[in-house]
C-alpha cells in the first residue's frame, strides 16, 4: 500500500526544536504545538492509542503538517503562543481573556504628563502596566497627584514658546496642583526630578521617594519653615500608608513572578503574582479552556508565556508549584518552605477562589448550563449511552444486625431531589444479609415504579462492591430491566466503580466532578439510611416494654406515648390519668403491669 502524503511529511520532519501546525482537508489550521524534537512529538500523535476522545478526533482530521524550526525551546514557546493568539486553532487551549488593560503613561515630551490610557502608542513614551483594574490605576495616580505637582494641560512647552510668553498659568497653578512650568516658574530639572521619583513609585520602589521627603522635611524644620515641613510630613504619611497597604512579603524577594495552577476536566485557572521590592504589585488570574488532554505542566507553561508577554514582565526568576520548561535565561524555583512557599500558597489560594467564583457565577446566571455540563461529563466519564438526568442510589443499614433497613436517594440533574427519597424496612430477609437485602429493595423499588407507570432512572448506583451489584442485577433480571437502566457499584475503600460482567473496576480522577456527584449520592444514601435506622432503634427501645403487656395493642401504645411522651411517665402515672387516655380496661392492664406488688 503506497504511503500517504501525511506519512511522507511525518517521516521528513527534523529532530529540532520548533513549532508544528496541523491542517485539515480544507487547509484550515486546527492545532499548533511546540516541541524539543518536532519529529518525535508529531510521530507520537500517530503511533499510540489516545484515551481521550477529542485527541482521537483531532488525529482523524489531520491531513497535513507544517513546521517552523527555531533556535531554542524558549523561542518555540513564544512562537506557539503568538500563532495560537493569531489564528485561534480549533483544538488549542482557549485563553479566555481578551480585554484591553489600563496602563499609566509618562509621555515623551518636555515637562512630561502622567495619565491613564488603554492604548499603547509607540512614540517613545514610557508605559507602566498593564494593570488588572482601573481602580489600581486611579489609586496610584491619586497618590502621585498628592505627592507631586504635575501639569495636566497638553500645551507644547518648548523653551522658545515659554520664553515668548505664549502661555498663562491656569486654575491648577492657583490651586497649588501645578508649579507653572508654562510661564517658566518651574525649571525642567526640578520637574524631571519628580518624574524620576514617580517612575520608581510605579515600579514599586518607594524607598527613594521616602528618603527624599524625609530630607526635605528636615531641611524645612531646620530653617524654621514649619508649615512647609508639615506639608512634607503629610506627603510622607500618604506614601507610607500606601506602602503598608501593599502586601509586603520579604524585602529580599525582589522582582519575582509567581505562578500557580488549579484545574478541572474542562478548564484551568492560572494565577500570577508579581513582586517588586518585597511587595505584591500585581495579581491576575487567567482562565484557559482545555481542548485536548493537556497536562497542568503544559497549561502552566503556555499561561506563563502569555502572561509575561501581556504584562511585559522581564523578571529573571519564577516561582512555580512544580518544574516547568521555559527555556534558558529564566531561573525556575519550586519553593518548599519559608516566605517563598507562603507566597506560592497565596497564589494557589487566589486561583482556587477565582475558580469558585466562576462556578458560583455560572450557577446563578445559567444554572442549566452548569447542570448540562455535569451531565455531559458524567455520560462521558461513566461510558453511558445517555445523560444520567435521573440517578438513584441504594444503601443498606443494619448496625449490629438489628433493624435492617435500606435507603434509596434520588438525584435529578445532579442535585438531590429529597421529596423522592425512600426508606425500606427489610421484610423477607432474616438476620444481617446485605446481598439479600439489596436484592429485595431493588426489586420492590422498581416493581412499584413499573406498576405505577413512574419514570425509571437512567443510572442506578449500588453502595457496595461486586456482591451487592450482582444481587441488584438479579432483581433487574426478574423485572426484565437489565440493559434498560445503567447500573454500577461503588466500593468504599478505593472508590472503585464496578460494571456488570466486567471484573476490572473503573477509577475516576480524584478531582473529577463525576466522582464528586457519585460520592455525594453515596453519602446522602448512607446518611438517610442511618437516620431511619436510628429512628427505628430508638422507637423500638421506647415501645418494647409496652408491647410486653398482654392486651395492649399498637394504637394504645401510640395514644399513651402522645400523652405522656416517655415510658417512665406512663409507668409512674396514676390509674385515673391512664383511664382518661385509653379507657378503664386497658388502663388497668397497664397500671397493674407496673404496680404488680
Short description:
It is built from 20 helices and 20 strands. With 597 residues, it is α+β, with helices and mostly antiparallel strands. Strands 13, 14, 15, 16, 17, 18, 19 and 20 form an eight-stranded mixed β-sheet that branches.
Describe the SSE topology:
Blueprint lengths: L4 H7 L6 E6 L5 E7 L2 H10 L5 H9 L2 E6 L3 H15 L6 E2 L7 E4 L7 E4 L8 E3 L5 H14 L11 H5 L7 H4 L13 H16 L3 H16 L3 H20 L10 E8 L3 E10 L2 E11 L6 H15 L6 E3 L11 E3 L4 H28 L1 H15 L8 E8 L7 E8 L2 E2 L5 E4 L8 H18 L7 E5 L2 H14 L6 E6 L4 E4 L2 E5 L6 H35 L6 H11 L2 H6 L2 H8 L1 H11 L3
Parallel strand pairs: 8-11, 11-12, 13-17, 17-18
Antiparallel strand pairs: 1-2, 1-3, 4-10, 5-6, 5-7, 8-9, 9-10, 13-14, 14-15, 14-16, 18-19, 19-20
Helix pairs in contact: 9-10, 12-13, 14-15, 19-20
Description:
The model has no long low-confidence stretch (mean pLDDT 81). Helix 9 packs antiparallel against helix 10, helix 12 (338-365) packs across helix 13 (367-381) and helix 14 runs parallel beside helix 15 (466-479). This protein is of the alpha+beta class. It is flat and about 120 Å long. The chain starts with a helix and ends with a helix. The strands form 4 sheets. Strands 13, 14, 15, 16, 17, 18, 19 and 20 form an 8-stranded mixed β-sheet that branches. A 6-stranded mixed β-sheet has the order 4-10-9-8-11-12. It has helices spanning 5-11, 38-47, 53-61, 73-87, 134-147, 159-163, 171-174, 188-203, 207-222, 226-245, 296-310, 338-365, 367-381, 434-451, 466-479, 513-547, 554-564, 567-572, 575-582, 584-594, and strands at 18-23, 29-35, 64-69, 94-95, 103-106, 114-117, 126-128, 256-263, 267-276, 279-289, 317-319, 331-333, 390-397, 405-412, 415-416, 422-425, 459-463, 486-491, 496-499, 502-506. Helix content is 46%, strand content 18%.
